[in-house]
Amino acid sequence: MQKREQSFGIQMLTVQPDAKPKGCAGCNRKIKDRYLLKALDKYWHEDCLKCACCDCRLGEVGSTLYTKANLILCRRDYLRLFGVTGNCAACSKLIPAFEMVMRAKENVYHLDCFACQLCNQRFCVGDKFFLKNNMILCQTDYEEGLMKEGYAPQVR
Ligand SMILES: [Zn+2]
Ligand SMILES: [Zn+2]
Ligand SMILES: [Zn+2]
Ligand SMILES: [Zn+2]
């Protein structure tokens, strides 16, 4: 599966005092600040380059922006709206975009699939879980596994 993200870098430039002010692509006014942002081959006020969804200033968020259908978006909103979520690491079935997922490191899971793979305990937000060999484990099973493998101090 090919994944092409429509991401673009954002540069922050210092405005040379003697340079002719550039027009902002967001508000169409001249940029008279000390700094300006360059993105998509256009110039922007720091305040004008914003995510169309959440209004966050994109010059600050990792300095990458995403575009799709004439929208300028932050990475989070781009992925939320257009991202293909991928395959569930537990059942290997595709997770459609828009569906709520659980994430652990690089893996995504259906909500229903996110459970300890040994005892099937489900997790709530904030619960502790562990990843081992790509298996989700509850704390009990994780610690038991460590004991068996002798990582934990052994009693002789
Ligand atoms: Zn502006
Ligand atoms: Zn956003
Ligand atoms: Zn699944
Ligand atoms: Zn368990």
Automatic annotation (TrEMBL):
Q: GO:BP terms for this protein?
A: positive regulation of transcription by RNA polymerase II
Keywords recorded for this protein, A-Z: LIM domain, Metal-binding, Repeat, Zinc
The LIM zinc-binding domain sits at 22-84, 86-148
Lineage here is: Eukaryota, Metazoa, Chordata, Craniata, Vertebrata
The organism's superkingdom is given as Eukaryota
Kindly give the InterPro entries that the UniProt entry links to this protein.
LMO_RBTN_TF (IPR050945), Znf_LIM (IPR001781)
Q: Which GO terms describe its cellular component?
A: nucleus
| Xref: Pfam families | LIM (PF00412)
State a single Gene Ontology molecular function.
transcription coactivator activity
Species name: Poecilia formosa
Q: Does the keyword Zinc apply?
A: yes
Q: Which CDD domains match?
A: LIM1_LMO1_LMO3, LIM2_LMO1_LMO3
Name of the protein this chain belongs to? LIM domain only protein 3
